[in-house]
């Protein structure tokens, strides 16, 4: 949007010069487009930082919603169950702890994260079931680093479908991420779709 407005105003100014020939106007436009591209490249890191900060604030707001539903004691148990898996990734103990969390606390932010974790740990139909449930019931949940369950679950499921040769299903999910989560990030704070091979 910024680029279009800038180019339009600059083109308008260039067109108002009655002495400019068609070739001069085209050369001026190319120069202006190059300058705008340089400016966009220079401000992109700052815009990305701002978007990541906004996403992380949304994540904190979603986590605070759990205070309306659960007691401090329950929130501590939720976090303990979650951390078992976080510290013992892919272990049977971790999986069992996540399943207990899901069964016991069906409205918690961490439940969405737990479903996504189980989806990443699982294979076959079980993986599809966990990721689909995360998408359908817990898309508003977030990790503390700003990763959105709705976006990341779609991304992981798209990779799964792509690996299974189901390109249409994969593309549909990637399109949903683009539409609904345009600024989604991965766990390193980088744009989620930048690592997609679509």
What does this structure look like?
- With 198 residues, the protein is mainly α.
- It has one domain.
- The chain contains eight helices and no strands.
- It has helices spanning 2-15, 22-65, 72-87, 92-104, 109-121, 124-138, 149-163, 167-180.
- Helix 3 (72-87) runs parallel beside helix 5.
- The protein starts with a helix and ends in an 18-residue tail after the last helix.
Descriptive key words:
198 residues, mainly alpha, 0% strand, elongated
Give a nutshell description of this structure.
The protein is mainly α and 198 residues long. Helices cover 73% and strands 0% of the residues.
How are the secondary structure elements laid out?
Blueprint: H1 2-15, H2 22-65, H3 72-87, H4 92-104, H5 109-121, H6 124-138, H7 149-163, H8 167-180
Helix pairs in contact: 1-2, 3-4, 3-5, 4-5, 5-6, 5-7, 6-7, 7-8
Largest sheet properties: none
Coarse morphology: elongated
Tell me the fraction of residues in β-strands, as a range: under 5%
Helicity range: over 70%
Distance between the termini: 24 Å
What is the alpha-carbon Rg in Å? 23 Å
In DSSP terms, counting alpha (H) and pi (I) runs of 4 or more, how many helices?
A: 8
Unreliable stretches (pLDDT < 50, length at least 5) are: none
Mean pLDDT: 86
Number of domains: 1
Q: Can you write the helix and strand succession as a string?
A: HHHHHHHH
Number of strands: 0
In terms of structural class, how would the helical and strand content be classed? mainly alpha
